[in-house]
Amino acid sequence: MNRTSWHRDGPRAESITGARTGLTQALRSRQRRYVAAMLVRSACVVLMALTWNRWPAVAICALVGGVVIPYVAVVAAQPGWRQQRGVRAELARPADEPATRVILEPTLILPPPERNTTG
Prior knowledge:
It is built from two helices and no strands. By secondary structure, the protein is mainly α.
């Protein structure tokens, strides 16, 4: 069977919407990235423990990886870390003319009346 008949010879079709991925799908992919990074961190810790006496340079590199990877994993698991596809809506721009200011009149604050405590 010829595999080329299943593929188109032209450019890939563009998406007709600028919709982002769903929340469930985005959360699942972030969790997978985080778990993969934590597995690599665990491997670094095991590698450090196994090579500490024989190859201290390898053990120190694994230790640095075990310390740095959690930070990188948390940053990579954030929702805005990867660039979303599609055109994003432009933010509202502030008006060119300043907002009207309300001028407040000065207020006179009187002390509370004295109470007569003799009785």
